[in-house]
């Protein structure tokens, strides 16, 4: 059976696993975006706290994925829970770092001018700082998504959902029938998903970034 025949014969299963993988990555990156924004907003005015937040997220990011998933088995068991927690943690660093960089990179003269005309701190944040920092934050989200897309395949190690099952099963059966097809199918579909997600973020950036900032 060649690769295309394998795709045709396993179409429904591959479609389901592709949907699982995309859904898992989307939800984890969304959770990381909310957490990352909250952390970044809480610390960006303090250099010491910003460094602490970035360093903490960096330490988590350096933990090998298999080790982190293995450690999460004890408190969370197998399946979705450890996969989601691990992917969310790995997605935090680029978002936290870019949120801090984006917010601290806003021209202070604009902030001072807004404060001078009587705008509150909340209004300045929502109407000036966040819109100007958004392109940098979105870049962090794009990086996190690509990372989560790849690391999500390793979630199969703890019986997590997604296309990792194809890759792990194929590697475990190397030399057997369809082993290469299984591994290749999982890998190719993850690449396709990564490209689709990145294209969506490019479109979101164009639609949500103020025209003056784009220029």
UniProtKB/TrEMBL annotation:
| Domain ABC transmembrane type-1, residue spans | 18-201
PROSITE patterns per record: ABC_TM1 (PS50928)
Q: Which domain of life is it from?
A: Bacteria
Keyword 4Fe-4S applies? no
Q: Which GO terms describe its cellular component?
A: plasma membrane
The topology of this chain with respect to the membrane is:
Multi-pass membrane protein
Q: What processes does the entry annotate via GO biological process terms?
A: glycine betaine transport; transmembrane transport
Q: Which Pfam families match?
A: BPD_transp_1
Indicate where this protein resides in the cell.
Answer: Cell membrane; Membrane
Q: Which residues are listed as membrane-spanning?
A: 24-44, 51-73, 79-96, 132-159, 179-204
UniProt protein name: ABC transporter permease
Which classification does the entry list for the species?
A: Bacteria, Bacillati, Actinomycetota, Actinomycetes, Streptosporangiales
